[in-house]
Automatic annotation (TrEMBL), chain A:
<feature type="transmembrane region" description="Helical">
    <location>
        <begin position="181"/>
        <end position="201"/>
    </location>
</feature>
<protein>
    <submittedName>
        <fullName>Amino acid ABC transporter permease</fullName>
    </submittedName>
</protein>
<keyword id="KW-0472">Membrane</keyword>
<feature type="transmembrane region" description="Helical">
    <location>
        <begin position="20"/>
        <end position="39"/>
    </location>
</feature>
<feature type="transmembrane region" description="Helical">
    <location>
        <begin position="129"/>
        <end position="147"/>
    </location>
</feature>
<dbReference type="GO" id="GO:0043190">
    <property type="term" value="C:ATP-binding cassette (ABC) transporter complex"/>
</dbReference>
<feature type="transmembrane region" description="Helical">
    <location>
        <begin position="361"/>
        <end position="383"/>
    </location>
</feature>
<keyword id="KW-0813">Transport</keyword>
<dbReference type="GO" id="GO:0006865">
    <property type="term" value="P:amino acid transport"/>
</dbReference>
UniProtKB/TrEMBL annotation, chain B:
<dbReference type="InterPro" id="IPR003593">
    <property type="entry name" value="AAA+_ATPase"/>
</dbReference>
<dbReference type="InterPro" id="IPR017871">
    <property type="entry name" value="ABC_transporter-like_CS"/>
</dbReference>
<dbReference type="GO" id="GO:0005524">
    <property type="term" value="F:ATP binding"/>
</dbReference>
<keyword id="KW-0067">ATP-binding</keyword>
<dbReference type="InterPro" id="IPR030679">
    <property type="entry name" value="ABC_ATPase_HisP-typ"/>
</dbReference>
<dbReference type="InterPro" id="IPR003439">
    <property type="entry name" value="ABC_transporter-like_ATP-bd"/>
</dbReference>
<dbReference type="GO" id="GO:0016887">
    <property type="term" value="F:ATP hydrolysis activity"/>
</dbReference>
<dbReference type="InterPro" id="IPR050086">
    <property type="entry name" value="MetN_ABC_transporter-like"/>
</dbReference>
<keyword id="KW-0547">Nucleotide-binding</keyword>
Amino acid sequence: MNPNNRNGLSRLFYNPTARSLFFQALILGLLLYFVMTIVGNVMTNLHQRGISTGFGFLSQPAGFGISQTLIEYNETFSFGRTFFVGLLNTLLVSFLGVIAATFLGVIIGISRISPNWMLRKISMVYVEILRNIPLLLQIFFWYYVVLQTLPRPRDSLSFGESIFINIRGVFLPKPVPDAGFSFYVALLVASVVAVVALTIWAKRRMRDTGQQFPVFWTSIAILLGTAVIGFFITGRPMVLDYPELRGLNFRGGITILPELIALWFALTIYTSTYIGEIVRSGIESVSHGQTEACRALGINEGQRMKLVILPQAMRVMIPPMTSQYLNLTKNSSLATAIGYPDLVSVFAGTTLNQTGQAIEIISMTMMVYLTISILVSMFMNWFNRRVALVER
Amino acid sequence: MTQETGNIITLKNVNKWYGEFHVLKDINLDVKMGEKIVICGPSGSGKSTMIRCINHLEEHQEGDIIVDGVILNNDLKNIGKIRKEVGMVFQHFNLFPHLTVLQNCTLAPIWVKKMPQKEAEKIAMKFLERVKIPDQANKFPGQLSGGQQQRVAIARSLCMNPRVMLFDEPTSALDPEMIKEVLDVMVELAGEGMTMLCVTHEMGFAKKVADRVIFMDAGQIIEENEPESFFNNPQSERTKLFLSQVLGH
């Protein structure tokens, strides 16, 4: 049969556009049917059990305490407040984890390719062991094995009678603002401005005269100097609230929960092994010819890293680094296992148990992780574009 | 010492091994100021290794290498000094892909010689004009042809104002029509009195500019002579065989 002589329906069937439209419509229809069935089922079930839907529960009083709150909170606050308390606790441990894991990971990654045999082997063993032990087990290790061996509050390890470490956590003196505090803050801000100005000046001077200036160390001196000298000039605008042993535990000061420490250590160490491998592969992805060109030009090893190798390695490192940061944030929900009051433990745990509003609470919690992930991805994509597109 | 003899590079009984493999065997070589030397030989004969020892990209195990009066040993300061005097051009260009052509040329003068950026840029433009690509200054290496990239690499080396230039097969990775533009730049450079050591298979270039041609095989210098005698009257059988293969077609 001549293919040009097909009847109308057959011609439509073999037309790629019509065909793809048909299948897309089919899939959409199936999806809609599936969602509507589920929603219908859920509504019927909820109705039968007498559970009311909606977000009204968020304004009801919570009636339970939380062991670590970054914002003001007690039992009389609402369930809605527990959401924010949990969210901030999640953000706290994720933030601390990302910073520490990056720092540790870069050191591990560079050690892995160090010319020093010992350093290379130690970091290799570190990576191979710690990334192959499940994270939950590592959290348990820090929490039950390491931190449980600390003494009771009465026999606390004491550092200068102001920092105490015991089985209940780490107790630090807390700075409380006093008269003249705002002036002190203004001084600190001024020192930061001075450092920025110094950096710009040093760059300009280098461009014009070729003179290099030790910006990093000078900046540190300026910041520390202002912080210390300014403190005394402004008449000591802070008093320290020392932790004190009262009865069975310490009161006052800042308390860092052992749950936070265990979770932070485990997340940091586990993620640092992956970041270490990313850093190593990033540096190794830059061809050896680049190193030879630097050497032939007399560029020293530090400058080679800073000016040639790292800017190129960054392009390879950023995408996998992003997923490690996101993994760390999501993994922080393992907090539930040791009772660190993160979002999952507080909101999707206690609050859910108390209210029974599973659909609302779980979807809110999922939305939080989704939002964090999308924000981090967006930022890292922007950053990636900045370093990656330089080539062309 | 070197000033008296007029030698800028001296290799004395240099030996090098890669594990068990003896790559350089008792190499002796004196290079006078302003001399142009072409080194040829079959692949694996150690010619690249020899010139890479001169700026310590490879380490030799025995013998002395003296560059401009500085003895090359494990002293980092000496290595740094020698590398400032010796420029190098590689087979695969090794330009910095994340920097523009101009930035490629100014990086070392700014960070190693502590030169003001404006001055470094002025010098870079001067050399980019000499290699005939000043109009590409703000492009990235990935946007240039192979021949252009190699000319940038030459300009980048010259910006450090070296007293000696090493060329490690500078045209081997280039398409035939681009070889000429690179060789032209090298011939011009030779005409200006630069001391040059070139590992190359371009025999035409050797005949044109070399003061001396060195033939290496199996880690040894087999023969060295002025180009005319080298090509017309080779002494060793090995050289004759090599030349018949290289010039035969």
